[in-house]
């Protein structure tokens, strides 16, 4: 089914939900031939409202198979198992939902089109309930104590009532998902359905980019009916949250809540802590970066030229992180900190590829374990690449490599390796970019001229879906040409 048809049906089904016509909404969702993870989740929620538990379980299974990190899908499948009185499976899915929260107090799905916040304390609350049904009262009590570490003020009464019931070995009520809270399609794309061709065939009346004299292949620029009276600065940052900064030095993360950046990246600082660490947004991801690695971005031409200059000094020292204080008393002695500190044997392996990646491993890591981690990072089969100590592809590592000698090469708990892609397989369709393509739409794939792109699927005769340098999205077919295997 074409992307546009799926979008129209998705929007039509949501309109039915807004009219409280849940039956018609479910019929429309079920008619979509190739639903994504969000649509499958919506199907499961509507099946759950209809008490069609077997059908709801299958829908959530499909949603999770499409996105294994969707915590709210694990939560809903756990609720389904609970209603089917399969309590052990319910506990397992609540554990997976908690794992997908990755130590966070909550996940707000508003940015993904779902008006719902999944709280860790509610996941633990329901996990304790399922364990109570299994007669595991002591374990249920421990999970409620742990839930108090994640509590918010508006959830305190729920947890207190549950704790009182557990102490009396009584069953309490589960926290359930709102029946009509569903993933909604992107408002920007829905707004374009009736205004113009979604694939970008609208006529350019005037460009807001000053001195825009480009001719040839290029993405459409922002348009309006009347030209601007006076030239103005690019409005790239007008709708973004946070204050724009440019990265001056490369930073490699050492914990899961830190963010990898390289010189020239533009990040948006949401908050600066007193310990000189800044919470930033980069490419839709949030994380921590040392503030002394950043420089405030000025939009004037003179400042732009200054920022393009390479730094002439070494990176500043990494600031110390303030450690979280874990409360300990007789009732919460079993509560573990949210994030364990790295083991003494851990080290960071930086791998040079068309883009650079870094993974944290232990010094007793085997070759197979290292390759498996790299396979997940590069989104490539482990058999499609090799690792070596140099960029010339000599000294290639294999499963027979003495890993003790490999780890002896580490300096300051860091090791550099190079990744080399093996010969292309016949089953892969590879394209090379004839022109650069950059779009502000989150579903589009951005690439530069000369980049290689692996085809995932054909959207239609004009648009393709592909994978390039760690990113997946759609792009115009006219911007690329197929790469011959024999080249």
Record keyword descriptors for this entry.
487 residues, alpha+beta, Serine Threonine Protein Phosphatase 5, Tetratricopeptide repeat, SH3 type barrels, Ubiquitin-like (UB roll), five-stranded antiparallel beta sheet, 13 helices, 16 strands, 31% helix, 17% strand, globular
Brief account:
This protein has helices spanning 3-18, 22-30, 37-49, 53-66, 71-83, 87-101, 120-133, 137-149, 156-167, 187-192, 301-307, 367-378, 403-407, and strands at 106-108, 117-119, 243-247, 266-272, 277-282, 285-290, 294-296, 346-352, 357-362, 385-388, 414-421, 430-433, 452-458, 463-468, 471-476, 480-482. With 487 residues, it is of the alpha+beta class. Helix 1 packs antiparallel against helix 2.
- In the CATH classification, which architecture of the largest domain applies? Alpha Horseshoe
The number of E-state strands comes to 16
Taking the alpha carbons of the first and last residues, their distance comes to 34 Å
Order of helices and strands: HHHHHHEEHHHHEEEEEHEEHEHEEEEEE
Largest sheet: 5 strands, antiparallel
The class by helix and strand makeup works out as: alpha+beta
CATH superfamily of the largest domain: Tetratricopeptide repeat domain
Query: Helical proportion?
Result: 25-40%
Could you outline the blueprint of secondary structure elements for this entry?
Elements: H1 3-18, H2 22-30, H3 37-49, H4 53-66, H5 71-83, H6 87-101, E1 106-108, E2 117-119, H7 120-133, H8 137-149, H9 156-167, H10 187-192, E3 243-247, E4 266-272, E5 277-282, E6 285-290, E7 294-296, H11 301-307, E8 346-352, E9 357-362, H12 367-378, E10 385-388, H13 403-407, E11 414-421, E12 430-433, E13 452-458, E14 463-468, E15 471-476, E16 480-482
